[in-house]
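Progress report, Aim 2. The chain analyzed during this reporting quarter is listed below.
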Amino acid sequence: MLLIYNKMEAIAKTRSVGGSLVVTIPSEIVKIENIQEGEYVDISIKKKRIDYFGALKGIGEFKEEDRMEDRL
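Predicted structure tokens for the chain:
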């Protein structure tokens, strides 16, 4: 949860219900904003970029013999 300029932001995963996608509002935001069932809320959608940092752990360091220049 991140508070920026009086706006609450959270990252949530979508799930399918019938033919629609549903996103759950975290309980911390519900409490802080005092959101009740049946109320209208303003949301904005921005697709989260996937971060692959650290995905190749254990691959080892890049060495001079790993260069592709000499393999042409």
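The longest strand covers residues 2-4. The helical segments are 27-33. These observations will guide the mutagenesis work planned for the next reporting period.
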